[in-house]
Design brief:
Helix content is 0%, strand content 53%. The model has no long low-confidence stretch (mean pLDDT 96). It has 235 residues and is mainly beta. The radius of gyration is 17 Å and the shape is globular. The protein has no helices and 22 strands. It has a single domain, classed as Jelly Rolls (Sandwich), CATH 2.60.120.10. The strands form 4 sheets. The chain has a 7-stranded mixed beta sheet with strand order 1-20-17-22-15-13-14, with no helix packed on it.
Length: 235
Amino acid sequence: MSFKIHRASERGVAEHGWLHSRFSFSFAEYHNSNRMGFGALRVINDDSIEAGMGFGKHPHQNMEIISIVTKGSLEHKDSEGNHGIIKAGEIQYMSAGSGVYHSEHATSDEPVSLFQIWIHPNQNGGNPLYDQRDFNHHDQTNRWVTLISGDGREDSITIKQDAAIYSAEVNENKMLSIPPVKKDHGRLILVIIGKIEINHQILDERDEIQITDDEEYTLLALSESKVLLFDVPMH
């Protein structure tokens, strides 16, 4: 057994009036030498943006960037001519490649909440890529749905890394097997809402658990819960 738990209260915090952020890993002014990422997973930012506010045009390079919108609508524009409105239940993907400028704003009618995720690509450079997908029609009840993968399986968004992100909505008292991983991969589980138990470890809302062995584990929902599962290479 190789577990590491990171409690919601231990995350980095940034308050900018219009932006309310919680950082799983070191980001911007928040630095924790023990929290620099998890393998290829570099960033999990839990952001809330006030209505009509957002990030002006800024650059990125050599990073796979995923935005999972949980509330409201996010407007995206970039230097490649892409323009989209990402609504709750939808996911946006941008591969920065050799370089791209983009802006992200909450639409004017309500605040937006999202998880912004950065994953190191398995190859640098190349043309920037953009994709947007609606997952509202996928039944996540007591089952894992593949949101992101390196091979586009199960109607997931394809990224430039041998990594995957899964989502599940687990009913109270239901159990769900945690998918196994390849050698040299790790698993990170983030509780979006609810309370779960894994191998006698209790996790509340926004808690995370890192699993760096390849043992089989089962998730038990102690209340109605929604979780994200990250499968990433650790080298």
